Amino acid sequence: MTQMASLLGEHDAGTLRHSWRVARLARTMAAQAGAPAAVRQAAGLAGLLHDVGKLTVPTALINKPAALSEAEARVMDGHTLSGARMVRSFAPPDILHVVAHHHDRFDEWPSLPWLTRLVSVADSYDALVSDRPYRAGCSPVAAVQELRRVADAQLDGTLVDLLLATLGVPHRLNAAA
Ligand SMILES: [Fe+2]
């Protein structure tokens, strides 16, 4: 499965770097939650592979220094489905689910599996703090504020709290006090 990650790195090095950061953060969050070794390992692998479908997205789109048009956004959004097609013959079901559904909203699908919700939070945090072709990454403080804002809506609030604990910042529910 790591061969797929190498291919992704050849296609777009920035996407692979993002994937490694998400893998590390997801694994650390799983450890913070007291998850057993198999789950921590799955979190790392899921983080590494979650965006593998971007192999089918032209690099000119991935690195476009401006907002995407509607048609371009549809191509970009298709990376979840194409990624799932790529890995479904060999990836375990929990990893396949992450690849297919890591952009699904928690409030529209509260029964999303834990690993998928975990990688969504790690992915969102890294996307916020990383530089994109069209904007600089925001500070960790601003990223945490944004994640608090979307907790219990786009993202599972309990896993946003887990991320905050992993990063060593105050718990969301206590933050307003
Ligand atoms: Fe993605």
In short:
By secondary structure, the chain is an all-alpha fold. Helices cover about 65% and strands about 0% of the residues. The protein has a single domain, classed as Hypothetical protein af1432 (Orthogonal Bundle), CATH 1.10.3210.10.
Structure explained in plain terms:
The structure is a single chain. It is built from eleven helices and no strands. It is an all-alpha fold. It has one domain (2-175): Hypothetical protein af1432 (Orthogonal Bundle), CATH 1.10.3210.10. α7 crosses α8 (114-129). It is globular. The termini are far apart. The model has no long low-confidence stretch (mean pLDDT 93). The structure holds fe (ii) ion. Fe (ii) ion is lined by residues 50-51, 79, 102-103.
Question: Which secondary structure elements does this structure contain, and how are they paired or packed?
Answer:
Blueprint: H1 2-11, H2 13-32, H3 37-49, H4 59-62, H5 70-77, H6 79-87, H7 93-101, H8 114-129, H9 140-150, H10 157-167, H11 172-175
Helix pairs in contact: 1-2, 2-3, 2-8, 2-10, 3-7, 3-8, 6-7, 7-8, 8-9, 9-10
The structure holds fe (ii) ion.
